[in-house]
Amino acid sequence: MITLYSFPSSRSLRVAWTLEELGLDYACQHVDLAAGEARQGAHLDRHPDGKVPVLVDGDLTLFESAAICRYLAERYGEPGGLLPASLEDRARVDQWLFFTTGELEQALWTQAKHKFALPRGRRVPAVLPTAAWEFQQALEALARRFEGEGWLVGDHFSLADLLLGHTLSWAVQFKTRLPAALEAYRQRCASRPALARAVARERAAAEPA
Q1: Is there a single domain that holds both residue 91 and residue 181?
Q2: Which of 30, 59, 157, 176 fits as disulfide partner to 206, beta carbons 3.0 to 4.6 Å?
Q3: 187: domain CATH number?
Q4: Cα separation of 96 and 106, whole Å?
Q5: Which residues contact 32 (CB under 8 A, 6 or more apart)?
């Protein structure tokens, strides 16, 4: 049985979304970050920094959302599904995974950390304008290669679109205005039934027993 350790509205949603796109059977185990559950021994054994997501698949325990999603798509996906059939196009998917997490997401996460995620004494509001500027720079770089028409790699939705769509939705939650074509692309990603199922699964797991 595959088990996903998750917390709603975090990066674990990417993994739940991937699991749903692949039609896999899995258990969704809520980790109460607000109550400090992630910093207790059992979860620290799964993740050295006490974060989510964590995936347990048999003897394999994985953390880092992009690595987990990539593993799931590689192990359980059909060729030409979330990962393209050709080596070259799989490399292009990886290119966009690294760009999304390394360029776009890091600027958004810097803003989130210094607005609410870090302890109050560690927040530095002065970095927020710079982080917002960094995100806009990354968005402009994205638009030089992809303006939102079609999909990132090939002619159908792939793992690259899943991570980019999720990250762009974070940007909208942070009150960032996207170019019209990218907003339309984000909405196409967000309208996928597998995402709705993933959101519902994480929320259900978080409800008191």
Answers
A1: yes
A2: 30
A3: 1.20.1050.10
A4: 14
A5: 7, 38, 206
H-run or E-run covering 27: strand 26-30
The backbone region for 23, taken as left when phi is positive above 0, alpha when psi lies in -120 to 50, beta otherwise, is: left
Domain that holds residue 37: 2-80+194-206
CATH number at residue 53: 3.40.30.10
State residue 54's pLDDT score.
98
Strand order in the sheet with 54-57: 26-30, 2-6, 54-57, 60-63
Instruction: Say what the pLDDT of residue 39 is.
Output: 87
Looking at the fold, whether 105 and 180 belong to one and the same domain comes out as: yes
Q: Is residue 14 classed as helix, strand or coil in its secondary structure?
A: helix
What pTM was computed for the model? 0.96
**Whose structure tokens read 């679109």?**
161
Q: Are residues 106 and 67 in the same domain?
A: no
Closest CA to 158 of 57, 64, 60, 86: 86
51-95 pLDDT per residue, tens: 999 999 999 999 999 999 999 999 999 989 999 999 999 999 999
pLDDT at residue 164, as a whole number: 98
Q: Is the pLDDT of residue 34 over 90?
A: no
Between CA 189 and CA 183 the distance in angstroms is 10
